[in-house]
Known about the structure:
There is one protein chain. This protein is α+β, with helices and mostly antiparallel strands. The protein has one domain: CATH 1.10.630.10. Helix content is 49%, strand content 9%. The chain contains 16 helices and 11 strands. It has helices spanning 17-21, 23-33, 50-57, 74-77, 102-119, 122-136, 144-149, 151-161, 168-178, 188-214, 220-229, 236-267, 269-277, 282-292, 324-328, 362-379, and strands at 36-39, 44-47, 141-143, 298-302, 307-309, 312-314, 319-323, 384-385, 393-394, 403-405, 407-409. The strands form 4 sheets. A 4-stranded mixed beta sheet has the order 1-2-7-4. Strand 9 (393-394) and strand 10 form a beta hairpin. It binds protoporphyrin IX containing FE. Protoporphyrin IX containing FE binds at residues 57, 95-96, 107, 157, 245-246, 249-250, 253-254, 257, 294-296, 299, 324, 351-355, 357-361, 364-365.
Amino acid sequence: MADDAPPPVLTLTPLNPAFREDPYAILNGIRERYPVMRDEMAGVFFISRHEDVRGIVTDLTLLRHPSNAEEAAVLTRRGLEERSGPNGEPPRSSILTLDDPDHARIRNPLAQALYRRVAKFKPEVERIVDETLDRIGDARTFDLMAAYALPIPIDVIAAILGVAHDRLDEFRTWSEGIIQVLNPIATEAQKAEMTRCSDALGAYMTDMLAQRRASPQDDLVSDMAALQAAGAEIDDADLIINLSALLVAGNLTTTDLIGNAVRLFMLNPGELAKLKADPSLINAAVEEALRFEPPVDITGRIASKDMEVGGCPVKSRQSMLVSLRAANRDPAAFEDPDRFDITRRKAPHVSFGGGAHICIGAPLARLEAQVALLKLFERFPDMKLADPAAPAEWRQLPFFRGLEQLHVTV
Ligand code: HEM
């Protein structure tokens, strides 16, 4: 590749060691030189200015389902044929890739039921966090990811849905398997594991739905079964795929948010001191962690008409990836963007996307991270990185950024 040629989009993932180590150095260069960058091989635009990213995610005329993209959009359309139905009909999708009217038909009742549960769930999140801290016990050095950041989100989303507590390890395995659907370069073995996990979770949810219909409990699956019985236009296949999506999306990303935020506070003791002195800063602290080290790299949209982005023509049916990570460090939107500052006045980050597809789990993720961080630093006021000189161990799943391990001493 010539020095001045834009890099292929697939090098902008943690599989590339340079990107894994410091994505921001690479993304800053791209945003300055190619803010609307075309990757012809992948058939996508890669868009990195905050203003453009924000404009795209909030543009309600844009589309999401990959079948709307031109044939050349190979990255966006990958897997479309292999996952299609027996007569070539598109595969069932969760709301993540549905367009209206189906998106609104399913998302609106689901969001209503989820938000009602989240609004009264704080005491339950506090209980789960306290129990997780109790399990750490007297350990002086431990891996914060395994002991804390991993179990809390899976426990919380399982409690909201009402899935069995004794199956949490399996849910975690299924989530890790299913998330590979978003990995554009998954190996055959990863694809086979994805199918196995997705079938297993689908079978579990089918069973659970039947049980809750027969005998409702105080949980989200029962809420959705009741809404369906009251006339909401959602069939069983829609319910199963979307409840499964909540379970998967609800735990990996929030684990990464908690891990990334703890690491940031360990690296920035001055910010931790501010938070300890004034715990009411916790909301701003979580927003700044989301901005500074977002768990999700990108989201996407498809042009529904010829349009312009940042002065560049984009044709109808062309596919756009927007870099949430690059937008969050755009100096045009944030003063001194590479400083982690929990007292920042304005932090309009785009870590949850935006518009009609804005992350449905954002209120829950925020609640979990706020409770988890405050209680962690309360329980372990002297927490430090076990080896401050050790390089961070980032996971290698494309388009996500989270830690494999984070060893701390308390
Ligand atoms: C820190 C944690 C999280 C991050 C960073 C995150 C990030 C995102 C992003 C970037 C999107 C795409 C938005 C767009 O295209 O505009 C999204 C969508 C989604 N998220 Fe999250 N998420 C998190 C937690 C959760 C949780 C806890 C749940 C479930 C309870 C969840 C469920 C979903 C679902 C179902 C969608 C698809 C929404 C739609 O397309 O209508 N997420 N999330």
